[in-house]
Amino acid sequence: MSIRGIIFDLDGTLADTLPGVAAAVNTGLRAFGLPDRPLADIRAWIGEGLPVLCRRALAGAPDVDADQMAPIVSGHYLAHRMDQTVPYPGIPELLDELVGRGVPIAILSNKPHEHTLPMSQALFDRWPWVAIEGYRHEDRRKPDPRTALDIARAMRLEPAEVALLGDSDTDMQTAVNAGMVPIGATWGYRDRGVIQAAGARHLIDEPKQLLDVLSEPPALSIR
Predict the structure, then answer these.
(1) pTM
(2) Could you state, in chain order, the average pLDDT of each consecutive group of 10 residues for the chain (223 residues)?
(3) Domain 5-16+85-215, what architecture?
(4) Domain 18-80 sits in which CATH superfamily?
(5) Which pLDDT value is given to residue 219?
(6) Could you give the residue ranges of the DSSP H alpha helices within the chain?
(7) Which of 104, 138, 218, 219 could form a disulfide bond with 5, CB atoms 3.0-4.6 angstroms apart?
């Protein structure tokens, strides 16, 4: 089947949110007298939700529970989440083209929904989204496919007609689990090989290349 709808991940795909996330994580660590973690470490932890992010940041600190740190991280992020957060180059132009072609678009993130929705609205409010969904319930966190499948139904498309564009192995696994087309964005927070190993059917190095993928007949090979 041809691709007729696109679900986007947010962090590392539509927008570079790393500086704000890193500042929030390190604020949480400092609250417990722990040292800052380098940007490269935090970059590798993004994509699986706040509880996982905090657990990874606290590795080696058994006296601090992630549930204690999470509200501090979330509170700092709430106040500073738009600091240095910008769409990636080429994303606005891509969205313009997709909407102009009548392609339905949606956002599905493991970022808590109370951050995902207002941030998406602040950055991307001029485009018509079928859905904007963030992390609400642990049992539906990506790579669980259920929210992605709900979005496909809202688009009135079969799962195989929908591509999920993301920058992580979690995104690729979500697409595979949902029976969608996994497309890896190599400009984000995971290495190319990690995305490919997780099942990416296509890898793109800049946003406009998604349009080339949409123009191709269905294929199983990596670009």
Answers:
(1) 0.88
(2) 96 95 96 95 87 91 90 94 94 99 98 94 98 92 97 98 98 98 97 96 98 79 47
(3) 3-Layer(aba) Sandwich (3.40)
(4) Putative phosphatase; domain 2 (1.10.150.240)
(5) 54
(6) 18-30, 39-45, 50-57, 66-80, 91-100, 113-124, 146-155, 169-178, 192-197, 209-215
(7) 104
Find tokens 């080339």 and name the residue: 212
Q: What is the pLDDT of residue 221?
A: 45
Q: Which residue, 161, 185, 159, is CA-closest to 172?
A: 185
Buried b vs exposed e over 173-197: b needs ≥16 C-beta within 10 Å? bbbbbbebbbbbbbbbbbeeebbbe
Using omega within 30 degrees of 0 as the cis cutoff, is the peptide bond preceding 143 cis? yes
Whether residue 74 contacts residue 112, with contact meaning beta carbons closer than 8 Å, is answered with yes
* Spans of all domains in the chain: 5-16+85-215, 18-80
Indicate if 169 belongs to the active site. Answer: no
